């Protein structure tokens, strides 16, 4: 008889994991609660039960998530989950190797995987309070959620008692200002639309001191070199006079998680000229495989500033945590 230890955040989660891994016939031998409120159960069961749940029955051994001969069932389950979420074969192998080296410690491989994945997170500093105005510019491709994220940030900062204003350099698209203005009206904060980056400083001065000015910019295709150069020039023109007036300008890159891997890499490269201090990953709720964007960010050690999983201005802006990124990679959503 083999005995397996399985941890869950609750007894129910541990039991459902045990049933998934070792079948509903698995017998629970003991149960312990740990300091963090988690529950570890010991069950007897055999790996044969896995076949019943379709885990071992995948024929294609070339699949990254296909179980290996003799591999511990818990580790096979981790491989399967990562494969289903769209993680690449090299990363699955890398994680599996990290986990199997610690398999003797009595931690369930899924929990070990979550800890390993969460441990790779680099958190970008959130825009903190400082003396003087801070301009926070969001840049990125078209339609990724820049304007919406600005509204979410403005909502959060206002709710925290900071004085906020919205500004836009998005002077190109019809309706761009209206969208931002509508958000500004709802949040009851001022909104300015200088004709160029160079005019931003003067318009800010006229507005009076603010803790944070959230600056919207024109979405640019990573392939549009001329457009990107124009954006860099416009932001530089804004940054110079701003710095002279004691205003700090920070840039965050917004990327949508429903973009292909190549698209995300291309965008990250294209916007590097703007020296973003962190990335905001949006549309995590819409992406069929959010793990693709997370894998990229975690492996490349991109600092992540925020995770967005919906359109609601007052809800869907989250700071990244090890648990959140692990959930996204292993389950495709945040619990
Ligand atoms: N599902 C989902 N939709 C989002 C999210 N962020 C933005 N959107 C939607 O994406 C669309 C484009 O957003 P917008 O802010 O105008 O993008 P921009 O062109 O980069 O400024 C809008 O319909 C937003 O409501 C998100 O995290 N999840
Ligand atoms: Mg916009």
Report on the architecture of this protein.
- The protein contains 12 helices and 10 strands.
- About 5% of the residues have low confidence.
- The longest helix has 20 residues.
- A 7-stranded parallel beta sheet has the order 6-5-7-4-8-9-10, with helices on both faces. Strands 1-3-2 form a 3-stranded antiparallel beta sheet, with helices on one face.
- The chain is elongated, with a radius of gyration of 24 Å.
- The protein starts with a strand and ends with a helix.
- With 335 residues, the protein is α/β, with parallel strands linked by helices.
- The structure holds guanosine-5'-diphosphate and magnesium ion.
- Magnesium ion binds next to helix 6.
- The site of magnesium ion has 5 residues, from helix 6.
């Amino acid at each position: 008889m083999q005995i397996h230890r399985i941890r869950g955040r609750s007894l129910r989660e541990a039991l459902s994991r045990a049933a998934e891994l070792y079948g509903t016939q698995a017998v629970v031998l003991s149960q312990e609660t740990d300091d963090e409120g988690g529950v570890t159960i010991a069950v007897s069961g055999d790996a044969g039960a896995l076949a019943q749940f379709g885990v071992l029955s995948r024929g294609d051994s070339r699949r990254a998530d296909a179980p290996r001969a003799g591999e511990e069932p818990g580790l096979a389950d981790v491989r399967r989950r990562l494969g289903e979420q769209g993680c690449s074969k090299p990363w699955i192998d890398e994680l599996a190797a990290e986990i199997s080296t610690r398999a003797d410690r009595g931690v369930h491989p899924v929990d070990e995987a979550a800890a390993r994945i969460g441990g790779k997170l680099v958190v970008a500093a959130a825009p903190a309070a400082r003396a003087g105005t801070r301009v926070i510019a969001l840049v990125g491709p078209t339609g990724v959620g820049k304007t919406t994220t600005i509204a979410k940030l403005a909502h959060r900062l206002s709710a925290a008692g900071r004085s906020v204003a919205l500004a836009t350099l998005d002077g190109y698209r019809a309706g761009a200002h209206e969208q931002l203005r509508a958000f500004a009206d709802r949040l009851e904060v001022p909104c300015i639309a200088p004709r160029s980056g160079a005019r931003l400083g003067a318009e800010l001065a006229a507005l009076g001191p603010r803790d944070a000015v959230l600056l919207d910019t024109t979405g640019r295709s990573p392939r549009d070199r001329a457009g990107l150069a124009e954006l860099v020039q416009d932001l530089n023109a804004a940054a110079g006079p701003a710095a002279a007036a004691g205003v700090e300008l920070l840039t965050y890159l917004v990327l949508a998680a429903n973009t292909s891997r190549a698209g995300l890499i291309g965008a990250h490269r294209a916007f590097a000229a703007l020296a973003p201090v962190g990335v905001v990953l949006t549309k995590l709720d819409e992406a069929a495989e959010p793990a693709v964007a997370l894998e990229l960010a975690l492996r490349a050690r991109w600092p992540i500033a925020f995770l967005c999983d919906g359109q609601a201005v007052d809800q869907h802006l989250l700071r990244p945590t090890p648990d959140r990124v692990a959930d996204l990679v292993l389950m495709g959503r945040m619990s």
